[in-house]
Design a protein that fits this description.
DNA polymerase, domain 1; 2 domains; alpha+beta; five-stranded mixed β-sheet; Ubiquitin-like (UB roll); 5 helices
């Protein structure tokens, strides 16, 4: 067994798991954080994207032991039931998602981008979202939502 202690959404958490356990399985099975989805399980779809130490990563490709002592942010850490994150509000306002399966990964990827670059170009947004596959919508509304959220986070526009 591998002992892992990490900070998830601002809260220190610990678990003892088999060494082959992925970060995704740790989050979903040990801590019941099910926002990150199991899609392809090979790093192609982005449904499992979380932020580790400020960088978006595919949780299905990272072992739980690799996050010992690190900081992880999941979709559950962005908002409360009463107050959505500006990125989530923008995705809702622009009707950027349909089924929602890819949504947590896309939103976390967008957050990772906007945390590092508060004023991204359209091409930079496309690049940041390129690891996330969506079969329901085109990506145009997602890109527009990220652009709008960036304006809100920079204080150039009030949230809806």
């Amino acid at each position: 067994m591998t002992d892992v202690t990490l900070t998830i959404n601002g809260e220190e958490r610990s678990a003892s798991v088999p060494p082959e356990t992925s970060l995704l399985r740790l989050l979903r099975d040990e801590f019941y954080l099910t926002g990150s989805k199991l899609g392809c399980d090979v790093g192609d779809c982005g449904a499992c994207t979380v932020i580790v130490d400020g960088m978006p990563v595919n949780a299905c490709l990272m072992l739980a032991g690799q996050v010992d002592g690190r900081d992880v942010v999941t979709i559950e850490g962005l908002a409360t039931l009463e107050d959505l994150h500006p990125i989530q509000k923008a995705f809702e306002e622009f009707a950027s998602l349909q089924c929602g399966f890819c949504g947590p990964g896309v939103i976390i990827s967008a957050k990772g981008l906007l945390d590092r670059n508060p004023d991204p170009t359209k091409e930079e947004i496309k690049d940041a979202l390129s690891g996330n596959l969506c079969r329901c919508t085109g990506y145009t509304k997602m890109i527009e939502a990220v652009q709008d959220a960036a304006r809100i986070l920079r204080g150039e526009k009030e949230a809806a």
